[in-house]
Design goal:
- The protein is an alpha+beta fold.
- Helix content is about 30%, strand content about 35%.
- The chain has a 7-stranded antiparallel beta sheet with strand order 4-3-2-1-7-6-5.
Length: about 150
């Protein structure tokens, strides 16, 4: 009985460790941007939930964070956060308007996504799908932060 318990405990720990390693590698770009642009845990402003964010690094390499991102549109910038337990490896990001270039573009087969270029991350392009991306673009059209690629 004890040997079965330890065998099962080893299997659960091994599988959990493997999943944590894979998840950690998948969130490396998010953490790099969060390190450069740390965000507060909470920010006020209109927000959308269950958005998807894609980071494209060129040479067909990308990371997708699907349907668990909260996009908050603040006066000074864009705040990206996740819910628990994803927030353990995805700290909040705050992108000030003066550090990003935002425009309407395409991502793969999706049209009309919000594309962002982040200062300090020249090789990285970011895409936010609707509804969060649409709301960002609507608000950006009335400001000077909207560019066109």
């Amino acid at each position: 009985m004890i040997s079965h318990f330890f065998g099962m405990l080893f299997g659960v720990c091994f599988a959990g460790g493997l999943l944590a390693l894979i998840y950690s590698r998948h969130s490396e770009m998010w953490r790099a941007i969060a390190y450069a642009y740390p965000g507060p845990l909470r920010i006020s402003g209109p927000r959308t939930h269950l958005d998807s964010v894609y980071f494209y690094l060129g040479n067909a390499r990308y990371f997708s964070h699907k349907a668990f991102i909260t996009v908050t549109r603040g006066e000074d910038g864009v705040h990206l956060s996740t819910f628990w337990p994803a927030s353990l490896l995805h700290p909040p990001i705050f992108l000030p308007h003066d550090r990003i270039r935002m425009y309407r573009g395409a991502w793969g087969l999706m049209r009309n996504v919000c594309r962002l270029e982040i200062e300090g991350f020249e090789g990285v392009r970011m895409a936010i799908t609707s509804p969060g991306g649409d709301k960002l673009l609507e608000e950006a059209e009335s400001a000077v932060i909207l560019g066109r690629a």
